[in-house]
């Protein structure tokens, strides 16, 4: 995977958190790892397919608590139950992050189209990224941890 495929997603995640909450959100980036497992490791995973000059999937994983904390900050009121509203909000957040990152990739010559977000609830769900290595980027925020998983490759097929 090309390095220029990773940075736009980290930058976009920070930008969206700050824009949507209306405040500066300190984010600490943890150690990048190559994920060999095809199982989800978080309570909630937003999955977005990418096709075009780059192809694959991007995933945003977090605990239910982190999802509720983020949505609480977005709404400026405490959210205590993980429900359809929280699910919808984190799905849209993943969609916006991926859209911003996608526009940055397009500036670098990698145009792509995004699939609508899918929310997966529960740990241990198998997600296969056949023949595409997945880079996991842990981001530690005041809301909790967010795992950004990027499994993208350049599409060399001539259309």
Summarize the structure.
Helices cover 32% and strands 31% of the residues. By secondary structure, the chain is an alpha+beta fold.
Number of helices: 3
Query: Remind me, CATH topology?
Result: Chemotaxis protein chec
Tell me what portion of residues adopts beta-strand conformation.
25-35%
Order of helices and strands: HEEEEHHEEEE
Mean pLDDT: 89
Shape: globular
What is the assigned CATH homologous superfamily?
CheC-like
- Biggest β-sheet description: 8 strands, antiparallel
What is the level 1 CATH name?
Answer: Alpha Beta
How many domains? The number is: 1
| Rg (C-alpha, Å) | 15 Å
Helix-strand makeup class: alpha+beta
CATH architecture: 3-Layer(aba) Sandwich
N- and C-termini, Cα separation: 21 Å
Q: Roughly what percent helix?
A: 25-40%
For the secondary structure, the number of strands is: 8
Low-confidence stretches: none
Architecture overview:
There is one protein chain. The chain has 159 residues and is of the alpha+beta class. The chain has one domain: Chemotaxis protein chec. Helix content is 32%, strand content 31%. The protein contains 3 helices and 8 strands. Strands 1, 2, 3, 4, 5, 6, 7 and 8 form an 8-stranded antiparallel β-sheet that branches. The chain is globular. It starts with 6 loop residues before the first helix and ends in a 5-residue tail after the last strand.
